[in-house]
Amino acid sequence: MLPQRYRLTKRAELMAVLRHGAMVRGGGLTVRALPTGRQSSRFAFVVSNKVSKHAVQRNRLRRQLRELVRARLPKVAGGYDVVVTVQPGRPVRTTAALEESLDIALRRVRLLPL
């Protein structure tokens, strides 16, 4: 579980990132990042019903993404609100593939060092 200070929880803030954030797609994920004046970056994860009709599978993807981000928090650049969305129709099946896709997307949006 991500610590509270790294979670993007308010709907208005989430919508601001979705509307105005820089977007990167790849590997079945979409990452949107919006610069803020905060010291640390905050994250939200979106997995819609179009990805899977089963809540168990959607929640599992969210848990996997949260854990992958939590492990990378020391390396992630501060000062961003980030929304990670799983793209429908392009499911990522393994944790290793999900990890690789997330790393590539975070590097492309310049949240992780190259």
Structure description:
Helix 2 crosses helix 3 (95-108). The chain contains three helices and four strands. The protein has a four-stranded mixed sheet with strand order 1-2-4-3, with helices on both faces. The chain has one domain (4-108): Ribosomal Protein S5, domain 2 (2-Layer Sandwich), CATH 3.30.230. It is an alpha+beta fold. 37% of the residues lie in helices and 21% in strands.
* Alpha-carbon Rg, integer: 13 Å
Major sheet details: 4 strands, mixed
Strand order of the largest sheet: 1-2-4-3
* Number of DSSP strand runs: 4
Query: Helical element count?
Result: 3
Beta-strand percentage? 15-25%
Q: State the share of residues found in helices, binned by percent.
A: 25-40%
Overall number of structural domains: 1
Anisotropy-based shape:
globular
| Helix/sheet category | alpha+beta
CATH topology: Ribosomal Protein S5, domain 2
Would you list the SSEs in sequence order as H and E? Answer: HEEEHEH
Task: Tell me the distance between the termini.
Answer: 26 Å
CATH architecture tag: 2-Layer Sandwich
Unreliable segments of 5+ consecutive residues: none
- Mean pLDDT metric: 93
CATH class bucket: Alpha Beta
Question: Key terms for this structure?
Answer:
114 residues, alpha+beta, four-stranded mixed sheet, 4 strands
Give the topology, please.
Blueprint: H1 11-20, E1 22-26, E2 29-35, E3 42-46, H2 55-72, E4 80-86, H3 95-108
Parallel strand pairs: 3-4
Antiparallel strand pairs: 1-2, 2-4
Helix pairs in contact: 2-3
Describe the structure concisely.
This protein is an alpha+beta fold. The chain is built from three helices and four strands; from the N terminus they run αβββαβα. It is globular, with a radius of gyration of 13 Å.
